[in-house]
């Protein structure tokens, strides 16, 4: 997507699913933080008809680098992750301890996605790599994307290593029984899982 001056802005539409299906266009969008958007970029977001912006940054980040949409009804600041015991910001990327530490935060962001009004849902963090990568990976997994497809989207972001996302997806499977089970344990309802799946695929389904 062309959202001046955003980076890592893209539509997840076209991501392959099982059976030859794909994620719908303009259902799930991702980007970096919006405080550098030009007037043209702000107008471009509005022209997309975005139904909800989910800002996954910490509260202090949202205050220091405010979104131009902060006063809009579509905007939600829902910090995805907390600082877990033993957190080391200098360590190599590893999202597994983070998602284990903050299932209720992940569930809150996912629920906001599920309850979004019509229109694309745009998720972002600061750089558009880590927290946005986790959230989009979770949404794609719920929709039925393979690990390979999720990793391919993640590594389209500069600096993102395939192993980081593959380790996270394997962790969801081995330690939590899969992404839907992880979300359910965090408080996400079957109705919300179904709502996101339908939103991303366009295929009606029964509650999981």
TrEMBL record:
It comes from the Bacteria. Belongs to the protein-tyrosine phosphatase family. Residues 93-140 form the Tyrosine specific protein phosphatases domain. It holds the Pfam family Y_phosphatase3. This is Tyrosine-protein phosphatase. Coiled coil: none annotated. Gene3D superfamilies: Protein tyrosine phosphatase superfamily (3.90.190.10). InterPro entries: Prot-tyrosine_phosphatase-like, Tyr/Ser_Pase_IphP-type, Tyr_Pase_dom.
């Amino acid at each position: 997507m062309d959202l001046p001056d955003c980076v890592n802005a893209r539509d997840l539409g076209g991501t392959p699913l099982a059976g030859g299906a794909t994620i719908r266009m303009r259902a799930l969008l991702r980007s970096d933080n919006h405080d550098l958007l030009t007037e043209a970029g702000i107008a471009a977001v509005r022209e997309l008809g975005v139904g909800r912006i989910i800002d996954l940054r910490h509260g202090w980040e949202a205050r220091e680098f405010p979104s131009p949409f902060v006063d809009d009804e579509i905007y939600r600041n829902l910090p995805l992750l907390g600082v877990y015991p033993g957190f080391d910001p200098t360590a190599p990327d590893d999202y597994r301890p983070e998602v284990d530490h903050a299932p209720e935060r992940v569930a809150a962001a996912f629920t906001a996605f599920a309850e979004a009004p019509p229109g694309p849902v745009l998720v972002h963090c600061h750089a558009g790599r880590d927290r946005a990568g986790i959230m989009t990976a979770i949404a794609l997994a719920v929709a039925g994307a393979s690990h390979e497809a999720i990793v391919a989207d993640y590594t389209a972001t500069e600096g993102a290593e395939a192993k980081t996302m593959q380790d996270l997806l394997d962790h969801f499977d081995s330690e939590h029984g899969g992404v839907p089970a992880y979300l359910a344990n965090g408080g996400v309802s079957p109705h919300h899982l179904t709502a996101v799946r339908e939103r991303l695929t366009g295929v009606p389904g029964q509650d999981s």
